[in-house]
């Protein structure tokens, strides 16, 4: 995927109902780790763009973007997890997700793929994982790799 290009996840995955989305995750990289979110929460993926700062937001909320006339708040996942920040580059993307209160964006380092992870390949989150562990829905086993599966709702409300 090239930066700045819209990606209509629903069309790309050829989905037509909620059942076809079960077990599908959008996998992305932040730092050295692979994370995933349920594809049913993903509206689209856009390249990084001008972020307007808004006073008095928590540090991990970077501000808002104007996406085709719609104002969308954006969160930097690195900041949310207390990771060291880095300059945005051509691979940096905003994953636009639907949450209970509406639409929001997640700034991530790089989109990797849409993958299917069966329920029996997902382990519960580890006990005592620290502050960031509260956002973990589970650990998905894909071949020899582990994907950290995030609970999108909890990212914004915990």
Low-pLDDT residue intervals, each spanning 5 or more residues: 1-17
Decide which structural class fits the backbone.
mainly beta
Q: Number of helical segments?
A: 4
Major β-sheet profile: 6 strands, mixed
Secondary-structure element sequence?
HHEEEEEHEEEEEEH
Can you tell me the overall shape? globular
Helix content: 10-25%
In the CATH hierarchy, what is the superfamily? Answer: CheA-289, Domain 4
CATH topology value: OB fold (Dihydrolipoamide Acetyltransferase, E2P)
Radius of gyration: 15 Å
Give the CATH level 1 class. Mainly Beta
Note the beta-strand portion.
Answer: 35-45%
How are the strands of the largest sheet arranged? 8-1-2-11-10-9
Distance between the termini: 31 Å
Query: How confident overall, as mean pLDDT?
Result: 85
Q: Could you describe the 3D structure shown?
A:
The chain has 158 residues and is mainly beta. The chain has one domain: Beta Barrel (OB fold (Dihydrolipoamide Acetyltransferase, E2P)). It is 12% helix and 44% strand. It has four helices and eleven strands. The strands form two sheets. The chain has a six-stranded mixed β-sheet with strand order 8-1-2-11-10-9. Strands 3-6-7-5-4 form a five-stranded mixed β-sheet. The longest helix is centred in the last third of the chain and has 6 residues. The protein is globular. The N terminus is likely disordered.
């Amino acid at each position: 995927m090239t930066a700045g290009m819209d990606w209509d996840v629903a069309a790309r995955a050829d989905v037509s109902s909620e059942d076809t989305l079960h077990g599908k995750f959008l996998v992305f990289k932040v730092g050295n780790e692979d994370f995933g979110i349920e594809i049913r929460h993903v509206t689209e993926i856009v390249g990084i763009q001008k972020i307007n700062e808004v006073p008095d937001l928590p540090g991990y909320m970077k501000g808002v973007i104007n996406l085709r006339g719609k104002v969308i708040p954006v969160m930097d996942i690195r900041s949310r997890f207390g990771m060291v920040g880095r300059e945005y580059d051509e691979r940096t993307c905003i994953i636009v997700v639907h949450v209970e209160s509406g639409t929001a964006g997640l700034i991530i380092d790089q989109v990797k793929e849409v993958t299917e992870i069966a329920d029996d390949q997902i382990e519960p989150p580890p006990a005592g994982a620290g502050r960031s562990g509260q956002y973990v829905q589970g650990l998905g086993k894909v071949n020899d790799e582990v994907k950290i599966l995030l609970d999108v709702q909890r990212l914004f409300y915990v």
